[in-house]
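Shape matters. As here.
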Amino acid sequence: MSDYAADFSLPVHVEQIQQLLPHRYPFLLVDRVIELVPDISVVTLKNVTMNEPFFQGHFPGHPVMPGVLIVEAMAQSAGLLTQISSRLKGNQGSPLFYLAKIDNARFACPVVPGDQLRMEVSLKRLMRGMGLFVARTLVDGKEVASCELMCAARSDK
């Protein structure tokens, strides 16, 4: 078993997340991993603050988190499920995955400063370097967004 697997414990904090994902401020949209069932599901958190750069223009006087960034946070959570599961198996990390497709995206209500996003992501199936995930985001126990995500492993040509 790898050193990472031996040291792995929940919650996974942002410093560890930065070792698993290539995203950085202002585009790292996951603050913590709080639940994980390897190869099955992950639950992550994102604390939304008024300091987020997108609130300057979305919308002045009425700050609302863009839906596309909520979807991105769910996709990053899917990436964390893949990366952590791979490392727990002793791998040095899985390939970088790109978001390839979004289906059935739904947004139920606005996300505003002070909200804490809870992303719940499950792996539906993995096939030929592609993963299909079911994702939803909740605030205070109420679903604010949901979608299906397809992510594809980067091919180095």
Notes: The chain has a mean pLDDT of 92.
